[in-house]
Specification:
Elements: H1 2-23, H2 28-37, H3 39-52, H4 56-72, H5 77-98, E1 112-116, H6 121-126, E2 132-137, H7 145-153, E3 157-158, H8 164-167, E4 174-176, E5 183-185, H9 189-212, E6 226-231, H10 234-242, E7 248-252, H11 254-258, H12 266-279, E8 284-287, H13 315-320, H14 322-335, E9 341-345, H15 351-371, E10 381-385, H16 388-392, H17 394-400, E11 403-406, H18 408-416, H19 434-449, E12 454-456, H20 467-473, E13 477-480, H21 485-493, H22 497-508
Parallel strand pairs: 1-2, 2-3, 6-7, 6-13, 7-8, 8-9, 9-10, 10-11, 11-12, 12-13
Antiparallel strand pairs: 4-5
Helix pairs in contact: 1-2, 1-5, 3-4, 4-5, 9-21, 10-12, 12-14, 14-15, 17-19, 20-22
The protein binds phosphoenolpyruvate and magnesium ion.
Amino acid sequence: MEEEAERFLKARQEVLTELEGLAAGNKIFRSYAAMAEDAMLEEGILARMRETRCNAQLALAEVAEETAAAFEAMEDEYMKERSADIRDVAKRFMAKLKRCALSDFSRITEPVILVARDLYPSDMAALNLAYVKGFITQEGGVTSHVSIMAKDAGIPALVGAEGILSAVSEDSWICMDGKTGEIVIDPDAAERERFEGKARENERRKKRYEEAGRFPSCTRDGHAVRLCANAGCLEDVKAAMGKQAYGIGLFRTEFLYMEKDHFPTEEEQFAVYREAAILSPEELTIRTLDIGGDKALPYFRMEKEKNPALGWRAIRISLERKELFKTQLRAILRASAFGNVRILLPMLISLEELREARRITQECRQELEREGKAFARKVPIGVMVETPACVLLAEEFARETDFFSIGTNDLIQYLLAVDRGNGKVAGLYDGFHPAVLRAVYRVIEAGHRENIPVGMCGELAGDERATGLLLGMGLDEFSMSPGEVPRVRYGIQNMSYAQEAAAAGTVLT
Ligand code: PEP
Ligand code: MG
């Protein structure tokens, strides 16, 4: 048994060294290395070997699969897709234990459309992306790594293409449209010409977006809006700045908590927020911890709830676990000495919650003052509008807050009673539902009556079909994933505010 344990620990060390080498080229491998290093995983595998007297391969296969299946069963799409990461890391362990090489993607040396059951980030890293014209996978969802990495690299990708593996052979010709989802196998000359025309138009469009980055996000008739990006880590902040975003409209802090095996300390948080503030000096909107529901922390025990989306989450946890909240607020306040930092509170339903959060923030300010720690005098505190209660009380909230940010991802699910992660009702999850549009407009109006800026950081803000309408309704700030910034900027630059405002008026009636 000792020997098997040693063999496992040696393989683990080899995997770690390999992943750390890859981490320099791709951020995903840093989280992989953390996973490979995870003490719970190691403990689980060693314990399985001891208890069942099985060898390292079997223990690894069982424990990794159980962990992956647990993630797969979660409702949150992001967490669900993490099961692929666990299987990918396990695959690397297994190759080391079996002393065999992983599939060799480096043999691709001519342009291809890559068709696979699923692709792991480490497969992607071995590819020379210059040869890859597109990805099609039979499995995987839109939040899977292949989607994210393909998006980052500007390569079209279609995931969940049922039956594709049996429909193609190694030398098939394939045409694909990443936007419409159309796939044509072995096209005739006319089909080929049609797709080549689309590809040429796409290239022209990309060039136009790039050029638009040199000019502000301002309509033809001079109405300017702030175009910001959402971020979950420092790499995202850098990506956003690379796309000339004005700032960060939503910094999701839960990832900082998820990648650790303990609640991050004030210093650990401060280091990240400070760096983000330096990278994005015009605006850094930090959302306080939004865990609960299906966003779990491995080291924070929470009871299983029947209805997690309506349960103990976000601000409800922060106000109850005040010491955790204060640690985060102190770190955010200290980062405010390095850039225009704003605090954003998630999932509010009552003014009392806002007042209590403000009171605790004030307490933190006084403590920092006494300790002689630097922070900005004015750190705006904003309300994330993502519950129907918050919309109905928007007028009252507007009087006591410094800004609004509309979180449509949750707001749509709570307004329409449609679970945002349930594929069965995905057709009902609609950002253009009249109730959603009326709610959005109501919040903008309420904010403007009290002279506070109103932004949006849900996915709708980056949906080009909504840009004109949101602009016309008077939205001041659009915050979206960094990759969407250039397209939306280009759209805004080519719009007339007067026309969009008139059109919005028609839509709203
Ligand atoms: C939202 O709900 O719109 C939002 C931006 O927050 P999250 O997607 O993190 O819940
Ligand atoms: Mg939300």
